Structure formats: structure tokens, C-alpha cells
Amino acid sequence: MSTDAPADPSPQPAPEPLNPPAGQGESPLPTADAAYWEAAAASFDDEPDHGLRDPAVRAAWAARLRTWLPSGPTAVLDLGCGTGSLSLLAAEQGHHVTAIDRSEGMIARARTKLAGHEAAFLVGEAAEPPVGERRFDVVLVRHVLWALPDPAAALRRWAGLLTPGGRMVLVEGRWGEADPVGLPAAELTALVAPLAARTQVESLAHDPALWGKEVADERYVLLADLPRRHTEVVDVHLVLRRGDEVLLARRANTGYADGLFHAPSGHAEDGEDVREAMIREAAEEVGLRLVPEDLRVALVMQHCAPPPARPRIGWFFEAAYGAGGEPWNREPDKCAELAWFPLDALPDDMVAYCRAGLDGLRAGHRFLLHWHRPGDAIAYDPAGPDRAVVLDGPGPTG
């Protein structure tokens, strides 16, 4: 789930319950910046380019957005969406929008603004959006990147959320005369260059209709198109065995498969091999301090969620209960509970491909395919079609 490394590499604290009560393991109180934006939500739309209440300003942004986004319906991720004004324009142009902001007040107003449109809303940080990789055709960000502590890291993360050939639409600028703030176009172009196959900068300062007034500072949009070559995310799954039982985590507040059980899992970061990724994810999610000797590759699966998702390669690693300490829920904001289940009596409310992987492992298989078809559910359906294909010999997966 989380891609953040454990904050403290010191020895593991004393074992805690699988599911700590509210208050344990939670993030610190919101920062001053977060409180500021929460308080600003009520008046945010008063600015002409925020609320787009002036028909001329609204029309100017709609016209620009139409040229920046693909012509057909696409999956658009609006990061730092504020009250959802650009999200609404994208939805009105036929796109499927996921809107994310750190402020619950902003998200509440965005949800109201987009009522009746196909859109999803999540509270989360723009630098680490709570969504899955390779899911979006466009990442749309307006006046957010300049304020992040590590813009280069955020750009790498956003590029990982895009499908091959996807586009980042980055509206930025540099404002003020005596003590200017912001991100010059040349600097942003240099940051984006290693990620993109093509970039284009379009000045926005000369169009007062966008801002509701004349402006003299630097304002622009940078369009960054990613390479179209085929790539796949590599993810890792921990099959922690306690006799005949395995440990599962119920997903929550992630934007993907929430409410369903899944093995503790995550994806490999740049420069990280799959075993290193599994050790890191086990520490982040369930507090285990594993070493390479604790892990055994149990199964490898190429899987793909329902369209428009992209395929991924999943490595399932087995470890014995007791290795690395006692498991506990280190991410209660993303995991509703941890629970043990017999491998031959897994719950039905599971992510379908994970259920197929564990069924295949129990049947003695080592290599599987699991590709959803249009209309399939992400959740396992006992009465639904079996999408698992065995690659290491004949036999059922269940």
C-alpha cells in the first residue's frame, strides 16, 4: 500500500494487536498548511480562476482544457483538485475523473459541484496519491507542484500512475516581484525531461480571460507525454503461513478494491529487486523485519484488473509465522483489519487475482495468468468465470 520506507529502522517495538484501536499508529495532526487549506475551502471559489463563476473565465479554461486532454473519454486524475472546478470541466467533456485533495472541505465542495457526473473523490496528498499505478491516461495538476518539498519525486510518482503514452498536464507559474515564488517553466521542463518522450510549454500569461484580469508574471502549462513502450508494474505479495493459515489484510481508503481482503503487498521501486521490495513492504504494512533467508518464491503471476487497467507481474513470497516478529497493522488508515484464514477456506470477499494466486499456490502451481475481461468485477465471485490460466502444467487452480 504505502511506498514510504519505515521511519525508524531501529529494532521492532513489542508486539501489538493485529488491529490497534483508534489513535494507535495514526498520522500526526494536520500540518499548518493543511489547516490553512481546510479553512480556505469556504472562500476558495471567490478567486476568478478558482471558482470559474464568470462565464468568460469558465469558457477560457474549458477551451484550453479541451486542447490539453485527449479527444475521447479518458481516465483523468486531478491532483490538488481544490473545489473541483477543473474536474467539472473535464467531466463535462466526457472524461472519467478521479479528484484528490488533502482538504476534506475542498473534497466535500468538489463532490457537490460534480454531482451527477462520473467522478470519484479521495482525500489524500498530491505527492503520494492513494491510487494504483498505470491506471490513468492523464494526470492534471494546477498550482500544486511548486509548493511540494520534492517536485522531482512527485513527478516520478505521477508518471508511474499513467498508462504508457499517458500525459501530465502541469499548470504552473512564478508569481510576485519583490519575493517571487513558484516554478519557472525552464526548471520544470528540466525536471520532466527524464520522464517524457515529448514536452511542450504553452504560455498562459497573455490570456487575461483565464485569470479574470491582466497578469504580468510567468504563467504556463507544461504538457508532458510519456513513452508508449510497453511497461509493467512489478508487485510483491506476502504469503505469511501460520500452519495451514495465511494472513490477509482488508483494504480501506485506497481507491482500489476497498473492503476486500488481499495479501500484504506493494510494488517494487526503481532500483529495487523483488526480494528487497518484499522485505520493505512487509515492514511498512505489517511491521515484520524479514531477512532474505526468511523468503521463498511461491508463485509468479501476470495479472490484469478489469479494463482500462494495465497488466502487472506479481511475485508471491512465502514466509513462516514468527519470522521478523509479530505482525501488526502499521497502516490503519489503509487497512481496516488483519485476519488469519485457512488456506483451504479463504473468504469470498477477496481481490479476485489474489484469491486465484493463493488457490493456485495451494494446488501446487508456480506460474499463472489472471486477466479480467470487460465487465468482470475486481472482487472474487465464486459463481463467476475462472480467469486463472495455469502455465506450469494441467490442473485446476482451486
TrEMBL record:
The record's listing under InterPro entries reads: Methyltransf_11, NUDIX_hydrolase-like_dom_sf, NUDIX_hydrolase_CS, NUDIX_hydrolase_dom, SAM-dependent_MTases_sf
Q: Name one GO molecular function term.
A: methyltransferase activity
Q: Where is this region: Disordered?
A: 1-34
The keyword Transferase belongs to this UniProt entry's keyword annotation: yes
Q: Which UniProt keywords apply?
A: Hydrolase, Methyltransferase, S-adenosyl-L-methionine, Transferase
Q: Does the keyword S-adenosyl-L-methionine apply?
A: yes
UniProt protein name = Methyltransferase domain-containing protein
Organism of derivation: Streptomyces nigrescens
Mind giving the lineage of the organism this protein is from? Bacteria, Bacillati, Actinomycetota, Actinomycetes, Kitasatosporales
